[in-house]
């Protein structure tokens, strides 16, 4: 293996400097949790120096401080470009303390100076109304990972490392966090890391032994079992153990040196054209007490090294003089007078191992990805248009068409290596297969002759873990790149909570002027509820849209393109957008092509509009419609048009207006969403007083939720998925949910005043048609030929 020169061993003097830095960081962390005044302990602590509400987490913090101190040294010693991801993000005091010490905090927030006034502000603002959150939130420079919801550190870290060949992402994993599903599966992430073209992740498993109130499983495993587990995951673990009396600076420094040396060696081999199959990456297991250096015992009960250290070890400092005294002893045990000058600035010597400029962990440009973001080189999406000579005359598979465009996005950005497609083993199933014409699917493990399309440097990256896909993409986007996640609609719910966290991150980040916009998170939901022909009920769930709607309007976009050309136009728009989560729902099954490309662009620009060619309310005298048939989604659009066809044939005097909605947010009032329609516009489109029969892709109540304030809301009658499903034909599925064309015609007859009696025969025919369609499926196993073969007949 290639030899990589290691820096010389750490001297005794170095460890003293590191220890001084660590003490300073610990002091600053305790100060943040407790103090509103007297930051340098210039006078004895008084109750009025203490915050009225003590909010924060001490337990994990000294361990993170220790890691940060040593990463700093390693960055300098190895001339390394590093970034940190703190899994136990509740250790916010650590990230704030270290970024303040290294100066990156003051660079970002100049009012929080590195002096006594700045220290006072640093302390006061922490977990304080109007101040900063207790976690490693977007407000913290150097962070792409809030860590409030545990489990995503390793996937985020790998997302940041992809296509960043010089970057090492140090990732602190909590031993509690390691019990979560997303983290447990993330140990496989390195199996998708290409040592030739990607950076590296250095996991540091923080075995501080406890969660909030329980021991952590990994911390209680016999050492040989833990070792076997981590080796089984493909790592080369190294152990650093510390205790109350033994601070392992020498061991940590040497272990980091070895780990970085190993990373560089693996990379050097691969980059010299000698990649090792399944390289064994290093990781560090750091076993140190929870609440290290804090109070050993409080009120006769052990605290340091137990779960009691998780949050605030001394809870009654304001009211209990014994606690106040313990706090003062604790803070003075760091000997702040040796660490900070009288003006409050850190003594220069303790910063000897701290990098400068963008090498500081709090100043890594990768953690403010917008500053590195380069626009994608996008092809002209119109070049992929399907030819539409007449609406519905031909069919295509929308996602297959999109695949040709994404293929060229990959091709054109191959050199700048800033676009990836992630998915849980579904890229081909979702018919984006064309992308594999220009790239492989990332694979670093063994291959067999029977394997297809695998490549160590593939741009498509698939693992059967929606959590990991989402985490990779979030890490990739937040570090300044672009991507696309395609997923079965029903199973995107697996990442509901991750989506929440990312949307929250974007909401906050958008308000921070120093955080530059990042590429949007694009989620394509396909293999959707209406066409789960192979699978059935378990695969039928359109509820992710409802979930997404709860988040802040400014970061959420939902698109339901009804055909291939509208999907291309929407996809182009999403790939150019910034700071959103774009959810696109589109089918992969053959679907009529309704709009030619020019019409598709116009329609997508409007977001919602009348389909003139399908409507007859504009004929002649420009009279108002008798009924509006609204639709959003590909299958609802098909059923609405088929219903319109029947209505126009059977009730030619009825004036029908067809309105298609591609951008769901258009339905909201303009006061609620930037894409929302004004009431005037909404009334013009849907009328304030005519019946609106609306066929919607998902659960029908969402349309009511979006339109409840509109004048005509009482006239809205929505059909959608009512949680009826199974493995059956496409038309049986829509019938089971009363969204079929025959039912829509009945809805019109029932709701348009005055036509009931004269359309009684048609209504009866519709009931009969439903019965016939149902029994046909039972007899022949497919849909009625006139349903299957129905096409829009231009008049
Ligand atoms: C997904 C999730 N479940 C539960 C919690 C509540 N919680 C916050 S901290 C914590 C314990 C974390 O333990 P560990 O990861 O070992 O962190 P440390 O001990 O270093 O604080 C729990 C359960 C959470 N934040 N996220």
Topology (SSEs and partners):
Elements: H1 12-34, H2 61-78, E1 81-86, H3 92-102, H4 104-108, H5 116-125, H6 153-161, E2 167-174, H7 181-186, E3 200-207, H8 217-220, H9 223-232, E4 235-241, H10 249-271, E5 281-287, E6 297-298, E7 301-302, H11 321-332, H12 336-339, E8 395-396, H13 398-412, E9 419-423, E10 441-442, E11 454-455, E12 460-462, H14 466-478, E13 482-488, H15 496-510, E14 521-526, H16 544-548, E15 556-559, H17 564-576, E16 581-585, E17 591-592, H18 597-606, E18 608-610, E19 627-632, H19 634-650, E20 656-661, H20 679-686, E21 692-696, H21 701-707, E22 716-719, H22 730-736, H23 741-751, H24 760-780, H25 785-788
Parallel strand pairs: 1-2, 2-3, 3-5, 4-5, 9-12, 9-13, 10-11, 13-14, 14-16, 15-16, 19-20, 19-21, 21-22
Antiparallel strand pairs: 6-7, 8-17, 18-20
Helix pairs in contact: 1-2, 1-3, 1-5, 2-3, 2-10, 6-14, 13-17, 17-18, 19-23, 23-24
This protein binds thiamine diphosphate.
């Amino acid at each position: 293996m290639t030899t990589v020169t290691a820096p010389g061993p750490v001297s005794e003097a170095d460890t003293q400097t590191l220890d001084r830095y660590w003490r300073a960081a610990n002091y600053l962390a305790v100060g943040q949790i407790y103090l509103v005044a007297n930051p340098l302990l210039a006078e004895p602590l008084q109750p009025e120096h203490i915050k009225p509400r003590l909010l924060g987490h001490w337990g994990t913090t000294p361990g993170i401080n220790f890691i940060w101190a040593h990463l700093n040294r390693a960055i300098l010693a190895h001339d390394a470009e590093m970034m940190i991801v703190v899994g136990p993000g509740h250790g916010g005091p650590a990230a704030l303390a270290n970024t303040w010490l290294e100066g990156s905090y003051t660079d970002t927030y100049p009012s929080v100076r590195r002096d006594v006034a700045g220290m006072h502000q640093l302390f006061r603002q922490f977990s304080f109304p109007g101040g900063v959150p207790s976690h490693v939130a977007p407000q913290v420079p150097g962070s792409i990972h809030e860590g409030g919801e545990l489990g995503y550190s390793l996937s985020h870290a790998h997302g940041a490392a992809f296509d960043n060949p010089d970057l090492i992402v140090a990732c602190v994993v909590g031993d509690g966090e390691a019990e979560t599903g997303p983290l447990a599966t993330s140990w496989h992430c390195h199996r998708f890391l290409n040592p030739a073209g990607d950076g590296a992740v250095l996991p540091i498993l923080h075995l501080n032994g406890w969660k909030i109130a329980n021991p952590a499983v990994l911390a209680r495993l016999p050492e040989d079992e833990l070792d076997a587990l981590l080796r089984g995951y493909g790592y080369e673990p190294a152990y650093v153990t510390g205790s109350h009396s033994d601070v392992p600076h020498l061991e940590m420094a040497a272990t980091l040196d070895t780990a970085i040396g190993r990373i560089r060696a693996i990379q050097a081999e691969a980059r010299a054209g000698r990649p090792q199959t399944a390289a064994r990456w290093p990781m560090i297991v750091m076993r140190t007490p929870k609440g290290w250096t804090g109070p050993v015992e409080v009120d006769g009960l052990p605290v340091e090294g137990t779960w009691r250290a998780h949050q605030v070890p001394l809870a009654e400092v304001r009211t209990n003089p014994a606690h106040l005294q313990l706090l003062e002893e604790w803070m003075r045990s760091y000997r702040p007078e040796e660490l900070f000058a009288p003006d409050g600035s850190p003594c220069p010597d303790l910063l000897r191992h701290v990098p400068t400029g963008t090498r500081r962990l709090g100043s890594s440009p990768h953690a403010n990805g917008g500053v590195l973001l380069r626009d994608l080189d996008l092809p002209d999406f119109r070049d992929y248009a399907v030819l539409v000579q007449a609406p519905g005359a031909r069919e295509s598979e929308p996602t297959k068409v999109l695949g040709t465009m994404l293929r060229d996005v990959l091709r054109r950005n191959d050199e700048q290596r800033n676009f990836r497609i992630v998915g849980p083993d579904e890229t081909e199933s979702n018919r984006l297969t064309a992308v594999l014409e220009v790239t492989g699917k990332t694979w670093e493990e063994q291959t067999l002759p029977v394997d297809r399309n695998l490549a160590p440097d593939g741009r498509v990256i698939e693992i059967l873990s929606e959590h990991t896909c989402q985490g990779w993409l979030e890490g990739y986007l937040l570090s300044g790149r672009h991507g696309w996640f395609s997923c079965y609609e029903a199973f995107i719910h697996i990442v509901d909570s991750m989506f929440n966290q990312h949307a929250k991150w974007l909401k906050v980040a958008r308000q921070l002027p120093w955080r530059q916009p990042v590429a949007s998170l694009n989620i394509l939901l396909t293999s959707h509820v209406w066409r789960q022909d192979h699978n059935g009920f378990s695969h039928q769930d359109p509820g992710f849209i409802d979930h997404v709607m709860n988040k802040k309007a400014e970061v959420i976009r939902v698109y339901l393109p009804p055909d291939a050309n509208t999907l291309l136009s929407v996809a182009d728009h999403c790939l150019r957008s910034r700071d959103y989560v774009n959810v696109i729902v589109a089918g992969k099954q053959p679907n009529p092509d309704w709009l030619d490309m020019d019409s598709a662009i116009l329609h997508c620009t409007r977001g919602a509009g009348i389909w003139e060619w399908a409507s007859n309310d504009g004929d002649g005298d420009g009279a108002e419609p008798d009924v509006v048939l609204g639709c959003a989604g590909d299958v609802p659009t098909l059923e609405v048009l088929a219903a319109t066809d029947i209505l126009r044939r059977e009730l030619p005097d009825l004036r029908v207006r067809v309105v298609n909605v591609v951008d769901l947010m258009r339905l909201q009032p303009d006061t609620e969403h930037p894409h929302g329609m004004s009431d005037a516009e909404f009334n013009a489109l849907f009328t304030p007083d005519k019946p609106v029969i609306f066929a919607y892709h998902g659960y029908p109540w969402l349309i009511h939720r979006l339109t409840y304030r509109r004048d005509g809301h009482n006239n809205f009658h929505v059909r959608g998925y009512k949680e009826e499903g199974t493995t059956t034909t496409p038309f049986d599925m829509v019938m089971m949910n009363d969204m079929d064309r025959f039912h829509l015609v009945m809805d019109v007859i029932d709701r348009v005043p005055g036509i009931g009696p004269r359309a009684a025969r048609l209504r009866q025919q519709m009931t009969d048609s439903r019965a016939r369609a149902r029994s046909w499926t039972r007899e022949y196993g497919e849909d009625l030929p006139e349903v299957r073969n129905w096409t829009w007949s231009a008049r």
